[in-house]
Write a structure and sequence with these properties.
The protein contains eleven helices and eight strands. α2 runs antiparallel to α11 and α7 crosses α8. The longest helix has 18 residues. It is globular, with a radius of gyration of 17 Å. About 45% of the residues are buried. An eight-stranded parallel beta sheet has the order 7-6-5-4-3-2-1-8. The chain has about 280 residues and is α/β, with parallel strands linked by helices. The two termini are about 30 Å apart. It has one domain: Aldolase class I (TIM Barrel).
């Protein structure tokens, strides 16, 4: 079984023109009918940093969350987590940690020490609120900024985070620079060292390499993947051009090819794609 975390938040965050809230509601509600295991709908961060998602508080209250899909909001600080948890429809928060301190500064104006303090506070908050924390590890498969990197270095950080109480970790190829070999080595090592962890994958891909990157993670034990219907998006805080996310349609094609089951309703997926095509101005 392959688990899918659909991330319309990642698809929308780098778009310059503001997508009307009602259009977002229509699109995300259509996605909630598809059967995704999880869905990252928006973010509680500074509107100056991500103006496209300044309406997330309004958006969540208009969503039909009577679904088995886990609703996730991305946050960049403890205050963002507190704002997210004001909304009962949100099941979990996602925090973008990174093993690149340069990227932590670029992305959330933080560093290793402050980020660990934030994670500790968020874990305590989640315990109080009976919610979940998903930890992303950005630059998990390499570092284009010149910081230290290696699969062993990644494993050391994973061990630290697990010791803090983290349970749900997703490895992110944030800038799309991760090589096939580094993706494979990273999952092989983590699944050997932490057999009960089952880390997810957030891959930024191109049409020319999506299957190779996906295979590198899958062949080394990964069974939970982030994706975006249409493959849109990327990280606008990386200082690099938006590369695009793993396309949900490609992920489903891959799952079928490998005889892996998903919970996806194909008819609902097609309808969501048609709505999304209007929003993202695709054909």
């Amino acid at each position: 079984m392959i688990k899918i975390l659909e991330t319309p938040r990642d698809a929308m965050q780098g778009i310059a023109h503001f997508i009307p809230t009602n259009s977002k509601v229509e699109y995300i509600n259509s996605l909630l009918k598809v059967g995704f295991d999880m869905l990252d709908f928006g973010s509680f961060v500074s509107p100056k940093a991500i103006p496209q998602l300044k309406d997330s508080a309004e958006l969540i209250e208009k969503l039909d969350t009577n679904t088995n899909t886990e609703i996730i909001a991305t946050i960049g600080s403890l205050s963002g987590a507190k704002r997210a948890f004001e909304h009962s429809k949100i099941d979990a928060i996602a925090f973008p940690f990174s093993i690149s301190e340069i990227f932590l500064r670029k992305n959330i104006n933080s560093d290793f020490t402050k980020s660990q303090q934030s994670i500790d506070a968020m874990l305590n908050l989640c315990l109080q609120k009976n919610r979940k924390l998903k930890l992303y590890i950005a630059m998990a498969f390499g570092n284009p900024y010149g910081d230290k990197w290696g699969a062993d270095f990644l494993a050391l950080w994973v061990e630290k985070l697990l010791d803090m109480g983290a349970e749900d970790i997703i490895l992110a190829d944030t800038t799309g620079d991760g090589s096939i070999n580094d993706i494979a080595i990273s999952y092989a090592l983590l699944n050997k060292e932490f057999p009960n962890l089952n880390p997810g994958a957030h891959l930024h891909t191109l049409p020319s390499n999506w299957e190779e990157k996906l295979s590198a993670a899958y062949n080394n034990g990964c069974r939970s993947f982030d994706s975006v219907l249409g493959g849109f998006g990327g990280c606008p805080m990386s200082g690099k051009a938006l590369m695009g996310n793993l396309d949900t349609n490609n992920l489903l094609h891959f799952a079928k090819k490998h005889n892996e089951k998903t919970k996806i309703n194909s008819e609902a997926l097609l309808k969501a794609y048609e709505i999304g095509s209007r929003i993202f101005q695709t054909k």
